Amino acid sequence: MSVTSGAAASARGRSDIWQTVWLALGSPWLLLGLSGWLALLLLAAVWLPQMPDSLREEGSAASRWLLAVATPYGAFGALARGLGLFDVLHSPLFVAPLAALIFVLLVQIVQQFTAGQALRRLPAVLAAAGVDGEPLSVHSPYRLLRWRSAVAEPALALAGQVQMLLEARFGRVERRTMRVAPAPVTVTGAAGAEGGAQGDGAPVLEERLLATRGQQAVFLRPLLLAGMLCASLYLWVASVFAWHFEATLLIPGATAVDSVHDLTLQYELARPVDGALTPQLRVGLGNESMAAPVAPPMTVQIAGVEVAARAVAPALEVRTVDESAALARPGQAATASALGLGFPADGSEETVLLPGIGAGLRIVRDGRSTPTVDDDMFLVEVYSGASEQPQRRFEVTASQIETIRVRGPGDPALTLAFVPLPALAVSARAAPGQWLLILALILAAVGLAGYRQQPGFVLVQLGPWPEQRTVLTMQSDLPGEFVALRRWREESDEAKG
User: Fold this and answer.
1) Cβ neighbours of residue 423 under 8 Å, at least 6 residues apart?
2) Confidence at residue 1, expressed as pLDDT on a 0 to 100 scale
3) Which of 36, 43, 461, 465 could form a disulfide with 469 if both were Cys (CB 3.0 to 4.6 A apart)?
4) CA-to-CA distance for 340 and 319, rounded, in angstroms?
């Protein structure tokens, strides 16, 4: 007998533990805590620079980058580096709580759906068989509150009072009178000896009242959690599959390559037509390629990757009109028919060699007399191979053609086209699963309507009790209503006492 009792107690203990865990996972405070922590980390990702994806696979380069960006922040930078705040989406402090949040949301969605099903099926409980004074079996995924008390009033009169009170608070109350088995209560005879069960064992009448609220809202509430789940899944997809690549200064003719994601960005000028050049940005991703005219700011899509470009500084394309390879950069033996030059700051300068005619060009960005960066002009100085002073100066403010000659009219000359263009900052961003964010917003907007009212129920049973009393049994998953009804009953007893 003791072994059986011990096994039953152990089973009840395990059941209580799982019930406690289940209720803890359904706590809104747990949901708010995890969501708040992730929101703080996302704010840190917006505020702090984040590691480029191209460096993540290179340990030494990543370490150098982290050290460089953390140093200006002092002690906070060292702490942020240790916590992974310079790479938030891949930090364990972000990924682990995100996984926990997804699990908690799944549990709470199940709880909310179960609560809706339980609330919808509650009216059937009114017709269930029972025992006088014993609470009916009610299923609820939330903590169920119970209270039982003996009242010195007839059951019918008390039922009328309870019904009026519930109708005032809930609006509609279902009431049913059922025959139930008498309570197995023993009574004491005149001589003090214990007798048998109450009455003669015949069924007794029990009044049952059920008040519910939020039957529609309870099925809308899971939609808000489903929206949060979609947003959390998007963050998980972003941490695993999203990537970002940026070319900070792309000048005409230059190419930027992200070998990790097989991405190529090329700033090119199409073949001149009627003396005009057409700058375009050619984007290659895997086996796909496309070209878009340069008109910053601009955004193009290729294979689900968004490529955006904006002008960050003036640049200059120097090209031979006859397309001969007559231009060179200092230190380079190879010549080209066109060179792209970038000028990141006012006063920046570049040098172009013209080995065929023994000359060189010094080109300086001069923005002191122009109102905006787009209006910056370039000062070009022509030097011969033997002179230290410029042989000629001219300004470039728009596309123009100049003939470069360092000696007399009969000496060799080179006709060049000078084409001002913007230097581009080009970024490529892959953010798969953005449809999850749209779905999250829709679901959350609809689900919020379910939180205008707290769904729940109050179930009251009133049956005869020995010595002309009534046993009142109350069950509810609404703490506020439960306390209010219990206080009403206790105040009534005090007033009569």
Assistant:
1) 249, 250, 251, 311, 312, 313, 314, 315, 342, 343, 344
2) 43
3) 465
4) 9
Mean pLDDT over each residue of the chain, to the nearest integer: 85
Dist CA 48 CA 70 (whole Å): 10
Structure tokens at 190: 């005149």
Entry field: residues in the chain: 497
- Tokens 């996972």: give the residue: 25
Which residue matches tokens 């749209």? Answer: 438
Q: How far is CA 399 from CA 322, 344, 420, in A?
A: 16, 20, 6
Q: Tell if the pTM clears 0.70, that is, is over it.
A: no
For position 365, what pLDDT does the model report?
93
Query: Six-digit token pair at 360?
Result: 């060189």
Those residues with Cβ within 8 angstroms of residue 36's Cβ, 6 or more apart along the chain or in another chain: none
pLDDT band of residue 193 (cuts 50, 70, 90) is very low
Provide the residue type at 172 as one letter. R
Cβ-based neighbour number of residue 204 at 10 Å? 19
Backbone φ, ψ for residue 174 (5° rounding): -95, 135
Nearest to residue 135, comparing CAs of 471, 466, 490, 481?
471
Q: Which two tokens stand for residue 444?
A: 């959350």
Task: Please give the Cα distance from 474 to 136 (Å, whole number).
Answer: 10
| C-alpha span between 241 and 216 (Å, rounded) | 38
Place of tokens 């865990």: 21
- The tokens for 445 are 């907007």
Residue (of 350, 344, 345) closest to 318 by Cα position: 350
The three-state (H, E, C) secondary structure of 46-112, written as one string: HHCCCCCHHHHCCHHHHHHHHHHHHHHHCHHHHHHHHHCCCCHHHCHHHHHHHHHHHHHHHHHHHHH
Say yes or no to pLDDT of 9 above 70: no
The single-letter DSSP state of residue 182 is: P
Q: Rounded distance, CA 351 to CA 431, Å?
A: 41
Can you read off the two tokens belonging to residue 96?
């682990």
Q: What residues contact 306, with CB distance under 8 A and at least 6 apart? A: 299, 300, 428, 429, 430, 431
Strands of 93-242 (E only): list them.
Answer: 145-151, 173-180, 204-213
Return contacts of 258-267, CB within 8 angstroms, 24+ apart.
258/54, 258/428, 260/53, 260/54, 260/57, 261/53, 261/285, 261/428, 261/430, 262/286, 263/305, 263/428, 265/307, 265/426, 265/428, 267/294, 267/340, 267/424, 267/426
Cα distance between residue 418 and residue 493, in whole Å = 99
CA 319 to chain centre: 49
Instruction: Measure the CA–CA gap between 340 and 356, rounded to whole angstroms.
Output: 19
Q: In what helix (H) or strand (E) does residue 7 lie, and over which residues does it extend?
A: helix 2-25
The answer to whether the CB of 113 falls within 8 A of the CB of 105 is no
